[in-house]
Recover the amino acids of this structure.
């Protein structure tokens, strides 16, 4: 039943040559991107690749991911069987049965037989799921069904071929192939001629589908089969909670307005996208009817690269814009819909970095085209002229203190700088949190001080909105001031300030010990420096909302929960979407300063989720979250539910206070 090598050899050689050429043509396109170092720390990268690519750690975080693991590992195991299959088609004597001892060969046959069954069942489940409950709208594509059908056909052809061999008595190790033997028993009534025909047809069907599948991969979305494993190797080694710094000089290009402005890794990401829809399902913008869809962004970048890559390699220019309308272009409205919450980054099983690409395209629009929502004009002017989003006089920064005695920070005398932030200084609601923090710090005997009118905005919003030039100016000024005043320890009550001072300012050579108020309060409680009367804590029935910039971007989940539990005696209730799967309030990425004109308001979606548990209090750790939650409650006319920061809940329970 073996084919004539004279016929099969040129077919295999042609198929392999075309496959290699196709892979080279596709993957070489990433070289039009700019340089980026993703080659250092080899051992750490290998470890990450093993955990996330081979052990599929992120894949199995979703229930259906287990089915994908069966398909993935079936591919790896059956790669050995298929290699033998193809080689023996050229050299009939090159069989594992002749190369391996029976002690190794027979267990291998058992594995091939069982794994083929697992793969067939997993493919059938995937087909049913795709047809009945697709992972996202538009997932029922002909390509998806065709790929799954081809995999299923390979498994069926495998069983039929080996069953025919066993039924004809050509397989000495038939006892090591239980499933194929069972099928052979069912075929035992067929004539030798019929069995021979079945074997030949099955062999060629397996060979044809395998070679076609191999050559179809580079031109399909399933190219991720080739790209996903190396993409896990080249993943960022840290949490992408900051973005690349720009150097400003005449003639430089800022942001990504054309496909060649992305890095090679950005472009390789587009080939690695599995289009599983996890980023789309996690994205708050996509969930509320905005034009942004992270999966679609990656698809458009890939289409754009395929359209422009070859001519760019020849020294030409891109003709399809990366920002615009139509296939291969990302809509500007989609870019401005991003809250930079990081949900897409957290959800992607192969570590595609969608959010940084959106930031790069925003930078291009702002700095190269001066094309941004009109609402941002006042924000940018206020930041440049008065270093705060509202444009309030800097001299008013310290007015929140009222009658509370607050000392200025003094180098060598004060241990902690309390970086109040713009919201804590100017927003009427956030100022109450600032006063609560002041009371907590005093009650614990912490040595702290403020900058007062010398304090400036950290620049988080302008950086996430793409105005890197203004951010660069603000960061330089802040770094110089911190260094001059010898600031080494900073307390923040805003996660955006915390993340910017801790992560972004490192790019400017400033290393600070930045402590978010949640962790500081937890520490003070643990050290016994805060005495609370829990029966006086007015938290009520509390549900906790995770801040994206405290949680996903910086991994702080437990500290605020422990604080609430210690302050009230009861752990907070959890929303259905919590911790790393939490849903954004809608204010991140500079969206705090933009109205939502498209789709449902993100904060209403989150407030509705919070209210489903009928809480007395929604507890937050961020002034932006507080604003969005309170606005949502007003819209829902839910006057009985309050929004409080953890500092307020703790301050209410300070011993000897009401």
């Amino acid at each position: 039943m073996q084919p004539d090598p004279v016929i099969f050899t040129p077919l295999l050689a042609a198929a392999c040559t075309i496959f290699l050429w196709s892979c080279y043509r596709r993957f070489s396109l990433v070289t039009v991107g700019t340089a980026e170092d993703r080659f250092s720390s080899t051992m750490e990268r290998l470890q990450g690749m093993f955990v996330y690519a081979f052990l599929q750690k992120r894949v199995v975080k979703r229930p259906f991911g287990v089915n994908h693991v069966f398909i993935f590992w079936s591919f790896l195991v059956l790669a050995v069987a298929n290699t033998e299959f193809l080689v023996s088609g050229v050299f009939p004597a090159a069989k594992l049965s002749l190369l391996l001892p029976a002690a190794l060969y027979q267990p291998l046959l058992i594995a091939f037989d069982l794994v083929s069954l697992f793969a067939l069942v997993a493919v059938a489940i995937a087909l049913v799921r795709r047809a009945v409950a697709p992972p996202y709208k538009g997932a029922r594509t002909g390509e998806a069904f065709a790929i799954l059908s081809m995999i299923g056909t390979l498994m069926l052809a495998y069983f039929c071929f080996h069953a025919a061999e066993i039924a004809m008595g050509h397989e000495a190790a038939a006892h090591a192939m239980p499933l194929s033997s069972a099928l052979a028993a069912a075929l035992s009534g067929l004539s030798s001629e019929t069995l021979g025909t079945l074997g030949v047809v099955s062999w060629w069907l397996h060979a044809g589908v395998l070679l076609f599948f191999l050559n179809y991969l580079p031109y399909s979305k399933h190219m991720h089969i080739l790209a996903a494993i190396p993409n896990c190797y080249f993943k960022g080694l840290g949490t992408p909670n900051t973005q690349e710094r720009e150097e400003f000089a005449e003639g430089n290009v800022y942001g990504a307005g054309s496909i060649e402005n992305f890095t090679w890794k950005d472009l390789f990401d587009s080939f690695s996208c599995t289009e599983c829809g996890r980023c789309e399902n996690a994205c708050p913008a996509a969930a509320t009817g905005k034009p942004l869809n992270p999966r679609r962004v990656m698809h458009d970048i890939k289409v754009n690269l395929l359209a422009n890559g070859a001519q760019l390699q020849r020294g030409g220019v891109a003709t399809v814009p990366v920002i615009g309308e139509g296939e291969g272009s990302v809509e500007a409205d989609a870019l401005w819909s991003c809250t930079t919450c990081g949900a897409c980054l957290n959800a992607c099983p192969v570590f595609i970095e969608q959010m940084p690409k959106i930031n790069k395209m925003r930078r291009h629009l702002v700095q190269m085209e001066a094309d941004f929502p009109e609402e941002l004009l006042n924000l940018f002017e206020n930041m440049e002229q008065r270093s705060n989003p509202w444009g309030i006089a800097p001299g008013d920064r310290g007015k929140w203190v009222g009658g509370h005695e607050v000392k200025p920070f003094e180098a060598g005398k004060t241990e902690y700088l309390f970086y109040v932030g713009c919201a804590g200084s100017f927003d009427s609601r956030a100022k109450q949190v600032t006063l609560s923090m002041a009371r907590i710090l005093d009650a614990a005997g912490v040595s702290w001080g403020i900058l007062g009118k010398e304090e400036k905005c950290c620049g988080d919003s302008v950086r996430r909105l793409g105005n890197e030039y203004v951010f660069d100016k603000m960061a330089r000024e802040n770094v110089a001031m911190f260094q001059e005043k010898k600031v080494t320890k900073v307390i923040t009550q805003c996660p955006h300030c915390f993340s910017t001072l801790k992560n972004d300012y490192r790019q400017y050579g400033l290393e600070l010990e930045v402590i978010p108020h949640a962790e500081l309060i937890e520490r003070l409680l643990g050290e016994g420096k805060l005495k609370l009367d829990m029966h006086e804590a007015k938290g009520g029935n509390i549900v906790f909302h995770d801040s994206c910039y405290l949680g996903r971007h910086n991994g702080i989940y437990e500290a605020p929960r422990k604080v609430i539990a210690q302050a009230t005696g009861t752990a907070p209730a959890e929303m259905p979407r919590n911790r790393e799967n939490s849903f954004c309030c809608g204010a991140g990425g500079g969206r705090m300063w933009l109205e939502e004109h498209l789709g449902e308001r993100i904060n209403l979606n989150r407030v509705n989720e919070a209210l489903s548990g009928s809480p007395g209090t929604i507890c937050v750790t961020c002034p932006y979250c507080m604003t969005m939650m309170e606005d949502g409650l007003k819209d829902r006319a839910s006057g009985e539910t309050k929004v409080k920061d953890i500092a307020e809940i703790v301050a209410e329970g300070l011993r000897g206070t009401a």
About this structure: Residues 5-20+41-233 form a domain with the Fumarate Reductase Cytochrome B subunit fold (CATH 1.20.950). Strands lie at 416-419, 448-449, 489-492, 513-516, 542-544, 573-574, 617-620, 642-645. The CA atoms of residues 401 and 435 lie 7 Å apart.
